[in-house]
C-alpha cells in the first residue's frame, strides 16, 4: 500500500471521544458519590452511549441515563503545518440525559453527571492511544430541564461543550506512487470477444508411422 500520509475520518474521532467518556464514567461517578457521602451505586450508571449530529431532548430508543457525544463539526479553521499536514479543531457537546421517578430528581442526577463529564474532560485530555486527539478548550456548560408529560417523572440534561484538537487529521502530500486507471474495473461480460486462444497439443504418432513398425 502506498504511503499517502494521514487518512482519517470524522467518525474515527467521534468513536475515540465517546470511548474516552465510556471508559472513565464509572470512575468519576464513584468519586462524586464519595465526595457527596452517597452510597455506592446511588447515581444510576449510563445505559446508553451514542453519537448524534444534533442534541435532541429525548434520544429515542436509547435508555437513560444516556451519554451523547454531539458532533458539531469544526470550531476553527484547520491549521496547516509546513510539511503539508493539517491539524483540525472539532467541537463536541458531551451531554447526559437523565430521567428520574420519585424523590431523586432528574436535575440532581444530571448535576452529578455534569461533575463527572467535567472531570473526565479536564483530567483525561488525550482521547486516543496515539495521543493525536487532545482536549484543548471547553467553551460552555449548561443544564436543561426537559418537559415530560408523564406525571411523576422528570427529565433533565447536562451538556459540556468542548473542543478537541486532532493532530495530523489530513495531509495533502505525498501523492500515491501510481497512476489510477482511467476506468474502474467492472464485471467480465460472458459475451466478451475472445481474440486469442492458446492450446497445448500432444501429438502421438501412429504405430505404423514409427520406425521399424515400432
Please describe the topology of this protein.
Elements: H1 10-35, E1 48-52, E2 66-80, E3 85-101, H2 106-123, E4 133-146, E5 153-171
Parallel strand pairs: 1-2
Antiparallel strand pairs: 2-3, 3-5, 4-5
Helix pairs in contact: 1-2
Mean pLDDT: 81
Apparent shape: elongated
Number of domains: 1
CATH architecture: 2-Layer Sandwich
State the low-pLDDT regions, or none. Answer: none
DSSP helix count?
2
Q: What class do helices, strands and sheet pairing give?
A: alpha+beta
User: What is the CATH topology descriptor?
Assistant: STM4215-like
Largest sheet: 5 strands, mixed
- How many strands? 5
The separation of the N and C termini measures 61 Å
- The strand order across the widest sheet is 1-2-3-5-4
Portion of residues within helices: 10-25%
Write down the secondary-structure element order.
HEEEHEE
CATH uppermost class: Alpha Beta
- Cα Rg: 31 Å
- Portion in beta strands: 25-35%
Features:
214 residues; alpha+beta; STM4215-like; 5-stranded mixed β-sheet; 21% helix
